[in-house]
Structures are given as structure tokens and as C-alpha cells.
Specification:
Layout lengths: L2 E6 L5 E7 L5 H7 L4 H5 L3 H15 L9 H32 L10 H9 L5 H12 L5 H9 L4 H12 L5 H15 L4 H8 L2 H5 L1 H23 L1
Antiparallel strand pairs: 1-2
Length: about 230
């Protein structure tokens, strides 16, 4: 049976959509949102996630043709936001696994190997995810973790930002401005466009520093040429 309720769009504003798939009741809010499941109700995080997955699985057979175009688009947007929030939570778990080496007790050589196997990803998926988990645990890139948790930043964009910041000079101020600049642009760019921008990041946030580095590189090249010719 359809439930008359209020839907939440990508921008977080509430609006009436009429017949909507997502109904948030007090029964749902209390155990899953208002409390800490493992502390207040004795449920482990994996059990909470399993119940959530069961609820989502029940939606798979929805007759989408009977839904409005607004609800269809809201459903896609909220699905992506949920993915980002889940990724943010998972990164916290991965940081703990990496810090403690807990997977080795179960026979895994490393957290990276465990992640590659569990995610079914390509070679390199595990190491990339551990790098992102480690990076987002640092104060410098805490805004990236927050954007993921809030649901508006995709993990693909988060990976782009992590790699771009890692490639910057070690100056903390430069890196902080880099994070701020990429997050601001990420709201309007897809991951491919953000990656292209990240290649020019140094010239955008530290043009004078880039000029100095170019001069030093040229000086080294000239000295090397001089030594080879002498």
C-alpha cells in the first residue's frame, strides 16, 4: 500500500511528492537514527546493515512504472547519497582494520587483500580504498570524509581528491587550500572533470610556488646539461 509522506530531494529540502516509497516513521527513527545501535540495543553494526539491506531488497521488485517521474529521480538521487554515506562509514571501519591488522587473524595477508576480495574489485581496489580510508582520517581531509557522510560527495570524487592532494607539495597551507578548492568544484563537476581540474591544481592554488618549482627544475636541467657537456 502506498504511503502519503514527505520526500527528501538531493538538496535536503522537504516537499510533498504524494505517493512515495520512502516513509520514515517514529518506529524507524528511534532504533536506527536516534540511538547508537550497538550501545543501546545490543545490535552489532553488521546486523543493522543486514536489516537495512533486507528492506532495500524488498524494494527491488517495485513496479517503477507506477511511480511518478519525480519519485523515480528522487529514488536514484537518494540511492547515490546512501552509497556515499555507507562508504564514509565503511572507511572508518577500514581504518580500524588497518590500524589493528585484525584481518590477519582470519588468514588474510593484508587489509588490502581482504578488501579486494570482499568488494570483488579490480587489482588495486584494496590499496586505493585503504589509502582513502587513511587519508580521510586525517584532519586535513576531514572535510572530504564529512562530505561523503553527508551524502553529496561520491567515493569516485573522494578518490580523485585524495590522489590530487597527495601529489601536492608538502606545505600544509597549500594542501588545505587544495582540499577546499576541489570540494567546492566537486559540487558542479563529475569525477572525470574533477580529475582534469586536479591536474592543474597547483597552478590554481599556488601559482607563485609553481613558478619557483619550474625555475628550480630548469636550473637543475641546465646544470645537468653543463656537467654532461664538460
Amino acid at each position: 500500500m502506498d504511503v502519503e509522506t514527505t520526500s527528501v530531494g538531493m538538496n535536503g529540502h522537504l516537499g510533498q511528492r504524494g505517493s512515495c516509497l520512502f516513509a520514515v516513521s517514529a518506529r524507524c527513527v528511534n532504533p536506527l537514527m536516534a540511538t547508537q545501535p550497538n550501545e543501546q540495543h545490543g545490535h552489532c553494526a553488521a546486523a543493522v546493515l543486514a536489516r537495512m539491506r533486507g528492506d532495500v531488497r524488498a524494494m527491488v521488485d517495485t513496479l517503477w512504472a507506477a511511480r511518478s517521474s519525480d519519485e523515480l529521480m528522487d529514488t536514484v538521487a537518494e540511492t547515490e547519497a546512501l552509497k556515499s554515506t555507507l562508504d564514509a562509514m565503511q572507511l572508518g571501519v577500514i581504518r580500524e582494520l588497518e590500524a589493528t591488522g585484525a584481518v590477519k587473524a582470519s588468514g588474510w595477508a593484508s587489509t588490502q587483500d581482504f578488501l579486494t576480495a570482499v568488494t570483488g574489485g579490480r587489482y588495486g581496489t584494496g590499496p586505493a580504498t585503504v589509502r582513502l580510508a587513511t587519508a580521510t582520517g586525517e584532519p586535513l581531509t576531514a572535510p572530504v570524509a564529512e562530505a561523503l557522510a553527508d551524502g553529496w560527495l561520491s567515493s569516485q570524487k573522494a578518490h580523485v581528491i585524495e590522489r590530487a592532494i597527495d601529489a601536492l607539495p608538502g606545505d600544509r597551507d597549500v594542501r588545505t587550500r587544495g582540499v577546499q578548492a576541489l570540494l567546492a568544484e566537486a559540487k558542479g563537476l563529475d569525477a572525470s572533470e574533477l580529475k582534469k581540474l586536479s591536474r592543474r591544481l597547483v597552478s590554481i592554488i599556488d601559482p607563485e610556488g609553481e613558478d619557483r618549482r619550474d625555475e628550480l627544475a630548469l636550473d637543475r636541467l641546465e646544470r645537468s646539461t653543463h656537467l654532461c657537456g664538460s
